[in-house]
Write a structure and sequence with these properties.
By secondary structure, this protein is mainly beta. Helices cover 11% and strands 41% of the residues. The protein is built from one helix and five strands; from the N terminus they run ββββαβ. It has a five-stranded antiparallel β-sheet with strand order 4-3-2-1-5. The longest helix is centred in the C-terminal third of the chain and has 7 residues, at 45-51. The radius of gyration is 11 Å and the shape is globular.
Length: 64
């Protein structure tokens, strides 16, 4: 599944051309940040799960 700090790929790329997002907040809503331009988007968990394509990198749990 996915967790805080993971890098994920969404179904549609961001207008800046990058399709890598880092999860920066978890809860009822999920906040993701574009790794290309730094734009932050908040989605409901349901909407996030619908738009998620795959998890690219798992966060290092020891660093947190």
């Amino acid at each position: 599944m996915y967790d805080f700090g993971d890098i994920v790929e969404m179904k549609k790329p961001h207008p800046c051309g990058v399709n890598r997002w880092q999860i920066i907040r978890m809860g009822a809503d999920i906040k993701i940040k574009c790794t290309g331009c730094g734009h932050i988007v908040m989605l409901s968990r349901r909407e996030f799960e619908k738009k998620l394509k795959k998890v690219l990198e798992k966060a290092d749990q020891d660093a947190q």
